[in-house]
Amino acid sequence: MLKNRKFLAPWSRFRADAAGTSAVEFAMLAPIFILLLLGMVAYGIYFGASHSVQQIAADAARTAIAGLNQTERQALVTDFISHDITGYPFVGPKKLTVDATDSTVDGSQFVVSVSYDARNLPIWNLFRTLPLPGTTI
User: Fold this and answer.
1) Which of 108, 136, 132 is nearest to 120 (CA)?
2) Fewer CB within a 10 Å sphere, N or C end of the chain?
3) Single pTM value for the model
4) Dihedral (Cα; 49, 54, 59, 61), 10-degree rounding
5) Cα 101 from chain centre
6) What does each of the 137 residues of the chain score in pLDDT, given as a tens digit?
């Protein structure tokens, strides 16, 4: 009977001791927290690139207003893209496609369309089972 008490005494002290519980909780929750943090950063970069593409389209349309015909508008937009794209950190100029055309519905209007191949953004390195946005913005 004494042997059992000697064995139970250290076990009860071990169970009552709270030292190290924070480390165990951190070890359990840290991977989840880090995954959430990296997911927020990756989606934030994607949304930043999306916003940049929308802003580039708006600025290119404002620049194209000065053109008298479709050829001049396309030249103005291409010149704008080649000189002013460096101000957008998440958008690479080589993956950007810009087109300025006259509207088929109304001849007095024109359309500037911008698309960006977003395959090099870090969002595609997340889990493949997550619902991800399209690769073209």
Assistant:
1) 136
2) N
3) 0.74
4) 140
5) 29
6) 555 555 556 666 666 667 778 888 899 999 999 989 988 888 898 999 999 999 999 999 899 888 888 889 889 998 998 888 888 888 888 888 888 888 888 877 888 889 999 888 888 877 777 788 888 88
